[in-house]
Amino acid sequence: MPAPARSLEVAGASVRVFDSAPDACRAAADLVAEAIRSAVRERGRAVLGLATGSTPIPVYARLAELHRAGELSFADVDTYNLDEYYPIAPTDPKGFRAFMHRHLFAHVDLAANRAHLLDGTVPEHAVDEHAAQYDRWIAADGGLDLQLLGIGRNGHIGFNEPSDLPVDRALALPTRPVDLHPATVADAVKDFGAEALVPRRAITVGIAPILAARSIVVLAFGPHKADAVARSLLGPVTAGVPGSLLRHADGPVTWLLDETAARDLDA
Ligand code: GLP
């Protein structure tokens, strides 16, 4: 595992700052691989919560490499993806199902019926029940061993956007359909080509099931994430910065950062 340039404890979280994002991603892949191996050893299976976005792509590349090298099997793994645009066509390459297939599922021995994703094609009248059922599936599979997370520039986790909810209500948010924040829509223009083409809604795993994971690994790289990282770790715990709600996680939270994303932690 690449060694961090420095490690710090901030607000109960372990923060590891790396010289480069690729080093941090390698460390993240090692944490995921270790979570798989120890859960399979102890319970015969591992359950992962997976994230999309540009940040974790090298993590998936490294996991695929470990698999190719014969060092990691997904044969006893279930995965639950964190979010999906809504609505989105089943074959849309910008959908997170296609993303996961491209970056991980096509390259490892994960059974197709154990790779769970929120479905951006369910009809409107069924979307609430679909989201609620997703939480029941996670619970029925014994909960998440590890949740991999990125963070939005505005502090969102999954598509849990900033809100003015009281903290206790934010902590209880289940998996559900949501409206996207204007900053999130703006960030998605690079993927969809034009603002008018970005879906305005999504389905996201809620704050409550994220916090219930037995461990959480958050990745953030680049100066554009520095503010969200500092507000999540050093600012008040508030639904206005969903990343700050991670301080109420049930299990350990590890932040893997590069120097630019960690910039404001020393201020
Ligand atoms: C997206 C996703 C999040 C992701 C975040 C950051 O909108 N819903 O799960 O963590 O925004 O994306 P990126 O990694 O591309 O910066």
Overall description:
By secondary structure, the protein is of the alpha/beta class. The protein is built from 9 helices and 11 strands. Strands 1-2-11-10-7-3-4-6 form an 8-stranded mixed β-sheet, with helices on both faces. Helix 1 (21-43) crosses helix 2 (57-68). It is globular. 2-amino-2-deoxy-6-O-phosphono-alpha-D-glucopyranose (GLP) binds at residues 51-55, 82-83, 150-152, 158-159, 184.
Instruction: State the strand order across the main sheet.
Output: 1-2-11-10-7-3-4-6
Please write the string of helix (H) and strand (E) elements: EEHEHEEHEHEHEHEHEHEH
**Helix fraction by DSSP (H/I, runs of at least 4):** 25-40%
How confident overall, as mean pLDDT? 97
What value does the Rg take, in angstroms?
17 Å
Q: Profile the largest sheet.
A: 8 strands, mixed
What would you call the quaternary organization?
single chain
Number of helices: 9
Strand content: 15-25%
Strand segment tally: 11
How does the overall form come out from the CA principal axes? globular
Poorly predicted runs are none
Bound molecules: 2-amino-2-deoxy-6-O-phosphono-alpha-D-glucopyranose
Q: Please identify the structural class as seen in this structure.
A: alpha/beta
Distance between the termini: 28 Å
